[in-house]
Specification:
alpha/beta; seven-stranded mixed beta sheet; four-stranded mixed beta sheet; 13 helices; 17 strands; 18% strand; binds pyridoxal-5'-phosphate
């Protein structure tokens, strides 16, 4: 059954770009490309051209676009039951909670389902306050790291260790202590009796794909244990196999009390989760926290399909193997293109390091080659392709990087023999 549309929306790329300019709030830089469909690591634009997607909608489409298992799960669930609220139970939501307990490896896990990364972290921050306040009414402070990113709600914005993002909204609550991300002693010193939790990313994603040293993680764990604070790991970007294990903390010496995840959890449908173990699992009680859409059966069905597919198809192993091949392939281009000084990161969350401030220029040159990547600042290009990226697509990515690097060198008049 179709209904007559109330308005006419253009179908062509330029028409949509013009509409965006006048109708959307200007929170994002103007975009020029309109994508109409995708499959795996491929996207098709409004002109019918095929692109290689090495970005996955900011580390979201971990199984690639239009993965048949997710499509089938969503289609079946959307035709069956879409929403009941948390006053009732549904099998997809409980199935997801059970799977999250299994993949964290926490038999005593309890789960709160949210809509996105920020709302998963918001739940974690409130959980830490309830936990802290049982000991001391003033135990509500949060320790976070410089360069971190935890979201854009007011509480998670303040937790985000990037002062430039705070400035337009100051004054904030003043409940956060932020320390350098590479200084275990500073971290230990910042945690005290009024600290409810330390919140950190094992690999800082938005901060430039920066893995933390194990020494920092160990210092955080010890300081939290000393002061009855919770160690909370934000795996919104690193979770769901992105770094080659279900969660990035699983390849470190520490186990947190709370983990949050979101981006790739439902391969593109909006969802987030806050998972806690031990005492932290019981910190929130009835009425303490809630959200209308949390546990939505459709997004949960998608997440269940994501988790089952990663397990059944061996995608954690594939991520480690493909990540190593992609990192090596691009790092090797440094021999011919000295602006590439290295590749850092884990699994398929990679940062191409550039010796000159050309990240935006390279990103544009790659777009000319129909490759999607994400510049972070001036010196890093982030890659977060699907875990299903094929060996042929790795070769194609390296080829197009080669061409894009040659193009920017030619522009600079720096062509090398
Ligand atoms: C993207 C991100 C968030 C915020 O997630 P949203 O879904 O945009 O709210 C939080 N933490 C980390 C580590 C992220 O990468």
């Amino acid at each position: 059954m179709s209904v007559a549309p109330l308005v006419d929306v253009p179908t062509d790329g330029p028409g949509l770009v013009r509409l965006a300019e006048r109708r959307l709030m200007r929170t994002y830089p103007p975009a020029e490309v309109v994508f109409v469909r995708g499959s795996g690591a491929e996207l098709v634009d409004a002109d019918g051209a095929t692109w290689l997607d090495l970005f996955g909608g900011i580390a979201v489409t971990g199984l690639g676009h239009a993965h048949p298992a997710v499509t089938a799960a969503v289609a079946a669930q959307v035709a069956e039951l879409v929403h009941t609220s948390n006053l009732f139970l549904t099998r997809p939501a409980l199935g997801l909670a059970e799977r999250l307990a299994a993949i964290t490896g926490w038999p005593d896990a309890r789960v709160f389902l949210a809509q996105c990364g920020a709302t998963a972290n918001e739940a974690a921050i409130k959980l830490a306050r309830r936990h802290g306040k049982r000991r001391d009414p003033d135990k509500v402070r949060l320790v976070t790291l410089e360069g971190s990113f935890h979201g854009r709600t007011l509480a998670t914005l303040e937790a985000t260790g990037q002062p430039a993002k705070h400035a337009p909204f100051a004054p904030l609550l003043g409940y956060v202590d932020t320390v350098p991300s590479d200084d275990p002693d500073a971290l230990a010193a910042a945690v005290g009796p009024r600290t409810s939790a330390v919140l950190l990313e094992v690999v800082q994603g938005e901060g430039g794909v920066r893995p933390l040293d194990d020494a920092v993680l160990v210092a955080a764990r010890e300081a939290c244990d000393r002061h009855g604070a919770l160690l909370m790991v934000d795996e919104v970007q690193t979770g769901m196999g992105r770094t080659g294990t279900w969660f990035a903390f699983q390849s470190t010496p520490v186990v947190p009390d709370v983990v949050t995840t979101a981006k790739a959890l439902a391969n593109g449908l909006p969802i987030g989760a806050c998972v806690a173990r031990g005492e932290a699992a019981d910190a929130l009680g009835p009425g303490d926290h809630a959200t209308t859409f949390g546990g939505n059966p459709v997004t949960c069905a998608a997440a269940n399909a994501v988790i089952d597919t990663i397990a059944a198809d061996g995608l954690l192993e594939a991520c480690r193997r493909t990540g190593a091949a992609l990192a090596e392939g691009i790092a090797a281009l440094g021999a011919r293109h000295p602006v590439v000084t290295g590749v850092r990161g884990r699994g398929l969350l990679l940062g191409v390091e550039l010796g000159r401030p050309v990240a935006r220029t390279l990103e544009r040159a790659l777009r000319t080659q129909r490759v999607v990547t994400g510049a972070i600042g001036d010196h890093v290009l982030r890659l977060a392709p699907p875990l299903t990226l094929s060996a042929a697509q790795v070769d194609l990515a390296v080829e197009r990087f080669d061409a894009a690097l040659a193009a920017i060198e030619a522009e600079d008049g720096e062509v090398r023999a």
